[in-house]
Amino acid sequence: MEEDMASVKGLTTEQVKKLQEQYGKNALIEEEKESIFLVFLKQFKDALVMILIAASIVSAVSGNIESTFVIILVLIVNAVIGTVQHVKAQKSMDSLRKLSAPKSKVMRDGNKVEIDAFDLVPGDLVFVEAGDIIPADAKIIESYSLLVNENSLTGESNSVEKSPSAEDMSDLPLGDRTNVVYSGSLVNYGRAVIQITKIGMETEIGNIAKLLGETKEKMTPLQKALDSFGKNLTIVILVLCALIFGIYVYHGNSIMESLLFAIALAVAAIPEGLNPIITIVLSLETQKLAKQNAIVKELKSVESLGSISIICSDKTGTLTQNKMTVKKLYLDAKVLQETALQAENTTHKMMLEECIFCSDATETVGDPTETALVVLAANYGHDVQALKEEHPRLSEIPFDSDRKLMSAVYAKEDKYIMYTKGALDSLLPRLVKIDIDGEVRDITEADIERIKLVNEKFAEDGMRVLSFGYRYMKSKDITLFDEEKYVFLGLVGMIDPPREESIQAVAECRRAGIKPIMITGDHKITARTIARQIGIFEEGDLVLEGVDVEKLSQEELIEMVPKVSVYARVSPEHKIRIVSAWQSLWKICAMTGDGVNDAPALKRADIGIAMGITGTEVSKNAASLILADDNFSTIVKAITIGRNIYRNIKNSIGFLLSGNMAAILAVVYASFANLPVIFSAVQLLFINLLTDSLPAIAVGVEPGNEDVLDEKPRDPKEGILTRDFLQRISLEGILIMIFIVIAFHIGLAGGNALKGSTMAFSVLCLARLFHGFNYRGKRNIFAIGFLKNKMAIAAFFIGFVLLNGVLFTPALYKTFGIAALNLEQYLMIYVLAFFPTVILQIVKWIKYR
Ligand code: ATP
């Protein structure tokens, strides 16, 4: 009894609750989440941290207990910062994952509702259609031309036909069980109602997941590049430190002391913060992207966003509003306004019938093309819902974007009628007759010419045109071979206005050196008209059709693509060729897609973009970016943010490296000039802690500005550490070093070695804090907006307070190697530390006036 109810009305909320308690969530168990404590412990396994631990032992052995204490403190604080960053990054990725979680249409409490596939339970009745991913293992209750691809389970790349059957197939091999479907398979064609049998780890794919075990986190390309740079740099620094150790010993310092110093120098100079900062900046910034409706699935795509130079976008719904309205019809060889149909006219009546019966939509839900047709019929007083219930559909061949037709069979009087609608190019070759004022006669060349002409005229006005035909059948069962010998009924032209934001977004693309391209299944002329309205099509551009693409060899296509701004009547496999052609020209190419067959093109593109609202689960699965609002302008916003993120990360790296450079150069100078120790080991550790964390992140999260759109897309072949960039870092390092050395000499002259070291240390600290502001953007700090980045201000003040805490707490003097400064000296450190920033700001002001 309960089973029966479920098969009609689905499960009730109570049943679901019970089942959920019993079976849990429909999810493959993710890797065990690391506990925070484990994450904390992991912070200690870094090579540098090992060095530090060694240093603390050295320090303890040499009787310098304060240093040991400070080193341990530094280690702990470092680990805490690392842990916090890790957890934050994790959280932000988790929330993103939730945003892109798959959905399912399911029957619950007698209603069809959409829920997270996560919340499915055994017994649920689920509706699946072309483009869906089967959410759990299930048996088929009802099916219409269902084709399922089970490649992920069976390795078989061809789709399998599936239909309900009472037979027990559990003894057959997986691939031969045609009355069940498995979690993770793709619905390639048709639709079905399925009843869930197993969820989560109990499913076949769950069993495989158990075997496969954990997946490793991957580094982004930027991280990989920096990782290898960091390794080389580490070697250079270690050699330098060894040299300095030698010099110190040579100058008569104890081996223990010299060793400690050399280790501290290594810690301060090696930019161990680079990779963690990239992770934290990327993951924080993905939240910004999500707020703008761009959901990124992998951190590495955030990096590529900034170098996109080609956007291939769908038309319908992405560039246009996807709100279709019928405007004109062509019936009885006459063009009519949508309001001019007459109730007593047989062809008019037939047309409205076909609008109702040959579509799956209702007035409010469904494919907008079909909604427009249903609304037209409703406007003439038809109760669409009632009619559909009264006249059940007997069979159908669903629409697909290759065939561009849809057919449905109904009983009419004592016969069967097949209604077919679709693109005129697809229907035209299948026409044999024409219906004019209820009279059916053979179709003539002249009829065809006129139909084509009207089709073009409608298309020139930017309308999507659907053609309608019908034929009477002996049997209600139809196959693809029955889609022929039609009677032509008429044409329907509908408008789908461009989104208002599209025009501006296209203009921004051009400003940013990005070429926008429209790829659509629609008619060539419709596409060109809309593309012209939006600004994608400019005079002199070419429009190619899918058939043209087919005729070209890949070499010819590569030569052609730069001139083409619109592709019409395109099938998914053409999209792959277009992306590949651009990639052969070394362009980073973004491609949107929503359909079942778009997945390969989305995977092929550098950034595959799926539609959050109308996209199929398959396309979302294949994409690296999901547009929550289906909107083209969101792509441009995402690119702007992507470019900003890249710039910020680069700035963060520059900030870290130039500061470290200043420190190491100052040490090198003091050692070779045979001067006293310029920084104590503890001071170096303190600086490392103070400036490598918060200020670097603050630079990394600088709010974006529109300026980035004035630049050309970043050349993907160009690494981040260009010659110019390294040169800039070196010059800044030298500049800061000069003022440190001046401070050192003033201190030495004004008292003793300790005073010199105190002044040099203070200037290094402060100058680096000031230097953070130099890295907030290209232009001077006032042009950027001094207060715009609150985190930068906060980071500066925290550093400032901590430094003064050390300078004014005599109890810390011994540990840090500090001597009390007089007022003059104290003011002097501010002047000296501020100088490099003043110079750099003036240079910026002159350069970008
Ligand atoms: P885009 O790639 O810009 O989103 P599109 O999705 O509008 O294009 P398709 O949906 O593949 O392209 O439609 C291509 C053509 O198929 C349309 O021009 C129309 O003639 C026809 N068509 C669209 N929807 C239907 C439908 N539901 N039934 C029958 N034919 C349709």
UniProtKB/TrEMBL annotation:
Locate the Cation-transporting P-type ATPase N-terminal domain: which residues?
Answer: 1-64
Q: Mind telling me which InterPro entries this protein's record contains?
A: ATPase_P-typ_cation-transptr_C (IPR006068), ATPase_P-typ_cation-transptr_N (IPR004014), ATPase_P-typ_cyto_dom_N (IPR023299), ATPase_P-typ_P_site (IPR018303), ATPase_P-typ_TM_dom_sf (IPR023298), ATPase_P-typ_transduc_dom_A_sf (IPR008250), ATPase_P-type_domA (IPR059000), HAD-like_sf (IPR036412)
Q: Matching PROSITE patterns, A to Z?
A: ATPASE_E1_E2
Residue ranges spanning the membrane: these are 47-63, 233-252, 258-282, 653-672, 725-747, 791-813, 825-846
Q: How does the protein's chain sit in the membrane according to the entry?
A: Multi-pass membrane protein
One Gene Ontology term from the biological process aspect of the record = monoatomic ion transport
GO molecular function: any one?
Answer: ATP hydrolysis activity
One GO term describing the cellular component: membrane
Mind listing the UniProt keywords for this protein, alphabetically? ATP-binding, Ion transport, Membrane, Nucleotide-binding, Translocase, Transmembrane, Transmembrane helix, Transport
Q: Which domain of life is it from?
A: Bacteria
The entry's localization annotation reads: Membrane
Tell me which family the UniProt entry assigns to this protein.
Belongs to the cation transport ATPase (P-type) (TC 3.A.3) family. Type IIA subfamily.
Q: Kindly provide the name given to this protein in its UniProt entry.
A: Putative calcium-translocating P-type ATPase, PMCA-type
The protein's organism comes out as Fusobacterium gonidiaformans 3-1-5R
